[in-house]
Amino acid sequence: MWDWSYVLSLLPGLLRAFLVTIAATLAGFTAAAIIGLCFALIGRSRFAPLRLAIRFIIEFIRSTPLLVQLFVLYYSLPMLTPISLSAFATGVIGLGLHYGAYLSEVYRSGIEALPRGQWEAAQALNLSRMRTWTSVVLPQVVPPIIPVMGNYLIVILKETPTLSAITLVEVLLAAKNTASVTYRVFEPYTIAGALFMAMSLALAFIVARIEKSMKRRYAG
């Protein structure tokens, strides 16, 4: 039976853990968006060895599980180097690298879809390479790929429970810890699921609004 007094007693702890989940999601997505863009830009380098190297890195990251990458970053890296990161920082970097590899392909498809005339026009105006990317290419590439990026944002949210493997106490691990003490699993897991669903719907709504706003902006 659902016990409201029990729910009220565990809700503050689950909400605190859910704030960690939200922070890891947003930080991980930001890192993924930046890393993905860097990968995509390096992948267009005129230096062939650099292009091949980044292609290998992307395929390697995409071909190995996120959990294995987290274990390497959190447990193996401090043994091999002086670098030791907190569970949260490791989780953000792991999510950023893993989904940055996927987002690099999203950026690449958007860049390749840009008409060649845009590049030629920038060249005719004698724009620098940096100005071409910031003023011509990216403003036209980003709006069409926002829905796909939004999907990855939601995917990252749903992947945050994986971070419990490196001791980060996010909402699902908090629910599990609570259930292991009280032996009541229905309420904590139901609340955790409801929080994930509410956040997923909120993110989907925000992404849809941003997409609609940008469509109006560029249609005008």
UniProtKB/TrEMBL annotation:
Q: Which residues cross the membrane?
A: 20-42, 54-77, 83-102, 136-157, 189-208
Gene coding for it: ehuD
The residues covered by the ABC transmembrane type-1 domain are 18-207
A GO molecular function term, named singly, is:
transmembrane transporter activity
Provide one Gene Ontology cellular component. ATP-binding cassette (ABC) transporter complex
Lineage of this protein's species? Bacteria, Bacillati, Bacillota, Bacilli, Bacillales
Q: Does this entry carry the keyword RNA-binding?
A: no
Cellular compartment(s): Cell membrane
Q: How does it sit in the membrane?
A: Multi-pass membrane protein
Q: Which family does it belong to?
A: Belongs to the binding-protein-dependent transport system permease family.
For this entry, the protein name equals Ectoine/hydroxyectoine ABC transporter permease subunit EhuD
- Which Pfam family is an annotated match for this chain, by its short name? BPD_transp_1
Cross-referenced InterPro entries, in alphabetical order?
AA_ABC_transptr_permease_3TM, ArtM/GltK/GlnP/TcyL/YhdX-like, Ectoine_EhuD, MetI-like, MetI-like_sf
Q: Which GO terms describe its biological process?
A: amino acid transport
Per UniProt, which keywords does this protein have?
Amino-acid transport, Cell membrane, Membrane, Transmembrane, Transmembrane helix, Transport
Where's it mainly located?
Answer: membrane
